[in-house]
Amino acid sequence: MKRFVSLLASALLLTALGCGGDKLATIHGTVTLDGALLEHGQIDFEPSDGKGPTAAATIVDGRYEVRAMPGEKTVRITGGKVVGKHRITPGAPLADKIEPLVPTCYNTKTTLKCDITRGQTAYNFELNPSTP
Description:
The protein is mainly beta. The protein has a single domain (22-127), classed as Immunoglobulin-like (Sandwich), CATH 2.60.40. The chain has one helix at residues 2-20, and strands at residues 25-33, 36-37, 40-47, 55-60, 63-68, 71-87, 94-100, 113-116, 121-122, 125-127.
């Protein structure tokens, strides 16, 4: 009987801890530029009110996944395509040389927004390279 009570108490404690739950939402999706997957880049989800942490993820072959606090976010996307290799400093290993492709209206002058809710949510971004 003692063992049963102990197991029941443990189960209730784990359930109570689970109810508080993880406050972060898992966000995933694709980023395309002129219909093609963005080869290489970064996506940032910043709180629109400026309060709270920014979540960021690397975009690889047009795909990203990140965990972020729920709420309205301003989205900034940078990226391009690999056009070769170069050394950042003499003697350093070769690194990808990236040609920027994403217009500033999606990063430094972004107009992109999204509303993140709890649970796993997909947000796909279709960017137009001719947008000023």
